[in-house]
């Protein structure tokens, strides 16, 4: 039996005004809905081997929720749990769905809504079940655009209409300005909309977020309007269309090898941490710098950079305080034994890892794997913030959401994934 693929999509847009994730200490609550959030699923089956890929338009979910969701999908679809792959697109314009130690004193965010998280789980199961129950004969081909966007094009057998497109992209998908309070899937929404204009409204698009944030990123960047992210998302889609258009009929295959494996690996916590008193002093200095820029009407980009620096320092203070007070083990209890997942789809593999890794880890994966192994972040939950590189850590740059895990965790996750790649 050749490749068969089914798709399912469910709306997971919350009702009413909700706390928004991703930009702490602003007391952001949704003022409306710009575009809907979705749970999207694609099921691939060939020769009695199947895998299910699910994407949630959310900032992230914790490891316990991710594990329960995989188990529920496995039970509802008979797809083995190790072959159910769940990730989040990392939008910063969706509901607050899991707690982070680094932002634990952000009283404006409140607590995640367990009722909403339960609803997301139900909708994700429905999307996956529909995908598994509605498979059709298809053919698939991989292509790469501009070196950092990897695309799986899936179309009906014999060169028919496109059924689904999977996009693995190592860029920050959340670019909307933090002052915007409308619910949105951000860049992936516009990318998917343009792809549907090209290939038909029934097309299912999965955006799989790869490692993002670089050592060299300008902290003044970001803060985009809807018009600006429309240009970015539509530009990505146009490049994807061109790349798919360059595929020949012979590039598409219906005899696609599918497999999935998971393993667990223990991650090290930060050892070199400042004392709470030193961390507090650093935060106070950065917070004062941010306040000065705001009071004197500083350049918007400079004010944004100063605010991010203050948030980063506050996150390190919260981690240092938890370590001193003995509460750190509570925060990492469910994620320190991290699940790594590798899904083979034809000639390439998706390397799913929890948390968000800096983009340099993605560069290393591309170099080691020859462009055939694609890291995907926020798979099987979160790691309480960014996993940075040693260089970033040595320059005291931990990302907007500092993680309590050491930068060595990035290499451990990557090496574990490569040890699982079929030879």
Tell me what you see in this structure.
It is a single chain. An eight-stranded mixed sheet has the order 5-4-3-1-6-7-8-10. It has helices spanning 63-77, 114-133, 187-199, 226-245, 276-295, 300-325, 328-332, 359-369, 390-394, 408-420; strands at 4-11, 32-33, 38-46, 49-56, 84-88, 136-145, 149-156, 162-169, 182-183, 204-209, 258-266, 337-345, 348-352, 356-357, 373-376, 386-387. The longest helix is centred in the last third of the chain and has 26 residues, at 300-325. The chain is built from ten helices and 16 strands. Helices cover 35% and strands 23% of the residues. α3 (187-199) crosses α4. By secondary structure, the protein is an alpha/beta fold.
Order of helices and strands, N to C? EEEEHEHEEEEHEHEHHHEEEHEEHH
Q: Describe the global form.
A: globular
Distance between the termini: 24 Å
Largest sheet, if any? 8 strands, mixed
Query: Any idea what the radius of gyration is?
Result: 21 Å
Helix content: 25-40%
Strand sequence of the main sheet, in spatial order? 5-4-3-1-6-7-8-10
In terms of structural class, how would the helical and strand content be classed? alpha/beta
Strand tally is 16
Task: Estimate the mean pLDDT confidence.
Answer: 93
Strand content: 15-25%
Unreliable stretches (pLDDT < 50, length at least 5) are none
Number of helices: 10
């Amino acid at each position: 039996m050749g490749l068969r693929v089914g798709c399912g999509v469910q709306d997971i847009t919350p009702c009413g005004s909700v706390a928004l994730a991703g930009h702490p200490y602003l007391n952001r609550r949704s003022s409306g809905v710009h575009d809907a959030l979705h749970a999207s699923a694609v099921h691939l089956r060939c020769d009695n081997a199947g895998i299910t890929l699910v994407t949630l338009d959310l900032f992230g979910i914790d490891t316990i929720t991710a594990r329960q969701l995989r188990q529920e999908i496995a039970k509802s679809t008979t797809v083995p749990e190790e072959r159910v792959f769940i990730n989040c697109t990392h939008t910063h314009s969706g509901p607050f769905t899991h707690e982070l130690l680094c932002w634990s004193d952000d009283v404006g965010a409140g607590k995640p809504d367990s009722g909403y998280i339960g609803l997301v789980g139900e909708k994700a199961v429905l999307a996956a079940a529909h995908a598994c129950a509605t498979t059709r004969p298809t053919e698939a081909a991989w292509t790469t655009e501009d070196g950092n966007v990897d695309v799986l094009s899936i179309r009906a057998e014999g060169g028919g209409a496109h059924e689904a497109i999977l996009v693995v992209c190592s860029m920050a998908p959340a670019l909307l300005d933090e002052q915007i309070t409308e619910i949105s899937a951000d860049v992936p929404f516009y990318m998917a909309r343009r792809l549907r204009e090209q290939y038909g409204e029934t097309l299912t698009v999965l955006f799989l977020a790869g490692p993002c944030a670089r050592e060299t990123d300008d902290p003044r960047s970001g803060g985009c309007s809807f018009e600006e992210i429309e240009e970015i998302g539509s530009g990505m889609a146009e490049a994807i269309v061109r790349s798919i258009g360059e595929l020949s009929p012979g590039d598409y295959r219906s005899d696609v090898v599918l497999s999935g494996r998971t393993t667990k690996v223990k991650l090290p916590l930060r050892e070199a941490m400042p004392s709470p008193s030193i961390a507090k002093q650093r935060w106070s200095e950065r917070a004062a710098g941010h306040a000065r820029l705001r009071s004197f009407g500083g350049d918007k980009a400079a004010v944004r950079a100063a605010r991010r620096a203050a948030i980063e320092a506050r996150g390190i203070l919260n981690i240092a305080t938890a370590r001193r007070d003995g509460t750190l083990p509570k925060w990492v209890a469910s994620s320190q034994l991290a699940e790594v997942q590798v899904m083979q789809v034809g000639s390439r593999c998706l390397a799913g890892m929890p948390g968000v890794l800096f983009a340099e880890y993605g560069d290393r994966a591309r170099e080691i794997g020859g462009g055939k192994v694609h890291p995907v972040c926020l798979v099987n939950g979160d790691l309480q913030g960014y996993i940075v590189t040693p260089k970033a850590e040595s320059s005291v740059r931990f990302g907007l959401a500092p993680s309590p895990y050491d930068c060595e965790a990035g290499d451990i996750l990557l090496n574990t994934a490569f040890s699982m790649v079929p030879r």
